[in-house]
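# step 3/5: fold
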Amino acid sequence: MRRKNLSATQCPIARSLESVGEWWSLLIIRDAFHGLTRFDEFQKSLDIAPNMLTRRLMTLVDGGLLEKRLYSERPPRYEYILTSRGYDLSPVLTTLLTWGNKHFAPEGPSIQLADLETGHIAEPVVIDKVTGHEISALTHKLVPGPAASDGMRQRLEHHQRQHHSHLTITEVHYHEENLS
């Protein structure tokens, strides 16, 4: 059974998942941020089957997240270098790190993000670059962009009606807890 192709949808999340939705992909990108570039380095770090690693690397190269470069002609050997598109995943990985530390590390964080100059441990949040305000589902909403189809506009309108009519005590508590 062939999996559904998400690249034709208007949803930017679905389109993004077409390139990085398989969990090995994000782990390969994580390792590329840590300086790994060669097939054997990724394989050793991830303990991944060679055929799976080959497929994931090809998907990441085809998606423009990694660039494949020849570093040895005899025998032919390649390295995989992050592209600007790949580097743009840094905030996504930081957000996953923060979320994972909060929800899936009962023993405490095993990895944290520290400021290069001061060494202080960062507390990452997603903010609006224009206003500097923290972004959350309770303070911001999705709106149609200029390229939105009628179907996407209807979906977002429906989402807004549902969102406002289902504000729960849990959401209110979360909002109060995270703004204080």
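# step 4/5: annotate
The first strand starts at residue 66 and ends at 72.
# step 5/5: archive (pending)
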